[in-house]
Amino acid sequence: MELDQEKIPTGQIIGVSDVDQDLRNARVPEHDIDTCFILRESNQVRRAVSLISDSYRLDIDTDAPAVHVYTGNEIGIAVEPEMFPDAPNHSNFPSVRLAPGEVFQQKTIHRFTKL
């Protein structure tokens, strides 16, 4: 998703191939990342992220519509399955509104594999 100068979503959906943060193929990012990546539409749990180190692989599966990736200035990485940020201000984003009595559920699975 496109962000303005203050890192607030503009409401425009852009493909990762249009920016320098295309991580669909395994590689080490060239710079710090603080971005929400929109996942393919699905209400099913599906693979969102795979992280690989020298010793382990972490696969994250989720039914969330997006994941936020933050690389933490070379000190680590955070991956947060989430709804679209700033959704109440963009009618083209999935709603995050809950009516009284409604229940919100999101499923996320972390799988660690020793390499």
Tell me what you see in this structure.
By secondary structure, the chain is mainly β. The protein has one domain (16-95, 102-114). 0% of the residues lie in helices and 31% in strands. The chain has no helices and six strands. The protein has strands spanning 34-38, 46-52, 56-62, 66-70, 78-82, 108-114. Strands 1-4-5 form a three-stranded antiparallel sheet, with no helix packed on it. Strands 2-3-6 form a three-stranded antiparallel sheet, with no helix packed on it. The chain starts with 33 loop residues before the first strand and ends with a strand. The model has no long low-confidence stretch (mean pLDDT 88).
Number of domains: 1
Number of helices: 0
What is the rounded Rg? 15 Å
- What profile does the largest beta sheet have? 3 strands, antiparallel
Report the sheet-strand fraction: 25-35%
Strands of the widest sheet, in order across it, are 1-4-5
What helical percentage do the residues reach?
under 10%
Query: By helix and strand content, what is the structural category?
Result: mainly beta
| SSE string, helices as H and strands as E | EEEEEE
Q: For the residues shown, what is the average pLDDT?
A: 88
Number of DSSP strand runs = 6
